[in-house]
Amino acid sequence: MSTETLDFEEQVALQLAQVREELLNRLRYSNVVHDNKLFALLNEHPESDWVAHLRDYSGPNYKELVDKLERLEATQCQFDLGLFGFCSDCEEPIEDTRLEHDVTVQRCQHCESQLKSRAQ
Ligand SMILES: [Zn+2]
Known about the structure:
Elements: H1 8-28, H2 33-43, H3 50-57, H4 63-81, H5 96-101, H6 109-119
Helix pairs in contact: 1-2, 1-4, 2-3
The structure holds zinc ion (ZN).
Zinc ion binds at residues 87, 89-90, 92, 107-108, 110-111.
């Protein structure tokens, strides 16, 4: 195993910090007063409440970042529960290559392709 790469739990913590910082910066320096107010609101609340406030108050421009924040928080929860890295459908371990690509992925390759073929 390579010692250069962060482990998955460290990656999630790092990405969480990055996404929160990006959200704060965008709200803070936005030209929209509403966004600046939301920035102030978030500062008064614990990070664990941010997704709820952002869902209620942030516009469509922030949706992608908020979605990412929510996925990362859910993934961090899975570490606490000892469920990280297991497929949400078949409960088999998710392939490392998939997790390395996106640490918040919820399904193994097999279930993901099943899901896609059903959706078509
Ligand atoms: Zn699966």
